[in-house]
Amino acid sequence: MNTISAADHSIEASASAKLDREDGPRSNAGGPVGSASRQQIRPAGSAQPPHRWTIWRRLVSAYLRDRSQFTGGKVPRVCPICDHRGVMISVGHPPRWDARCANCGSRERHRLLWLWITEGGGNRLAGKRILHFAPEKALRRALRDNREYESADLHQPHVTHQVDITRLPLADGTYDVVIANHVLEHVDDDRQAMQELFRVLRPGGTALLTVPVNPSRQETYEDPAITTPALRQAHFNAPDHRRFYGLDFADRLTSVGFQISTFRMSPAEDHRHCPGLHPRRRQRPVLQCRRSGQQT
Question: How far is Cα of residue 143 from the mean position of the Cα atoms in its chain?
Fold first, then answer.
């Protein structure tokens, strides 16, 4: 165990030192001097700051699961959610290297969404009434200080609403923001779910949605006759997925009334914050799905 920890310590220390050199002098606020957006990228209420024991525990666990991810050194990264600076680790089956924050546990899609929330150094969700489906720990912790934050899931305990996303017992026009990361591919009737998301949004509200997309297909691939976990894994890339979305995902959303725009990072920011988004996965932006009208 000591040998593993020493090896990981060397990788983590060298990565952090390199990142400090790249950033230049640092201010008392913890960001590079002259970089207001970086100094404010983690506003009050974000996930826990870097915790050394958590980082070492996850590094050692990652090393034991797949030590090849540490061969050849590691490129330093920054988690915009918790401000961890250094090594990121693998996640998923099969594993995606450099995808999970070793501190807060966030994945690529969580960090991409947080970069949208904090773009320009502020917090776009401040004061908004939020409904978060299948809430991920890293994002839930980051949003916990918002008094208007609510969570929802069909199976998860300790959520605000234990509900079916296709039949929401919630009033029309209730929320300013709805968040659903990698949820719709699990739903039998995703179009009905989209209609429900649109319904519970206030005019001018926004749904922030991400799903796995196969950029080589124009049309979404789905077949209701494919029902076993083994066949779903073979056809849709996961045992509990109902489809593999194509480039027509945005068309499905516009068909229920949403106005769509996308959020992507620059290549430099992509490398710095979301390295798990390798070239195939960089086709997965955050879709900002707006319900037209003026917010009251």
Answer: 13
Rg (CA), the chain: 20
Cα 10 to Cα 20, 63, 78, 80, distances in angstroms: 15, 13, 18, 23
Residue closest to 206 by CA, chosen among 139, 285, 130: 130
CA–CA separation, 193 vs 167, rounded Å? 8
Report angle CA 183, 188, 189 to the nearest 5 degrees: 95
Closest CA to 47 of 3, 121, 101: 101
Are 205 and 175 in contact by the 8 Å Cβ rule? The answer is yes
The residues that bridge with 262 in the sheet, in sequence order, are 287
Dihedral sign (CA 13, 19, 22, 27): negative
pLDDT in tens, 109-140: 898 889 889 887 888 999 999 999 999 988 99
Between CA 173 and CA 202 the distance in angstroms is 4
Provide the token pair at 72: 């050849």
Encode pLDDT of 41-99 as tens digits: 344 445 556 678 888 888 888 888 888 888 877 778 889 888 888 888 888 777 788 88
Question: CA 43, 61, 151 angle in degrees (round to 5)?
Answer: 40
In this structure, the strands spanning 201-210 and 175-181 are: parallel
Domains and CATH numbers, the chain: 2-106 (no CATH), 124-290 (3.40.50.150)
Burial (CB < 10 A; 0-12, 13-18, 19+), residue 120, is exposed
What are 101's strand-pairing partners? 88
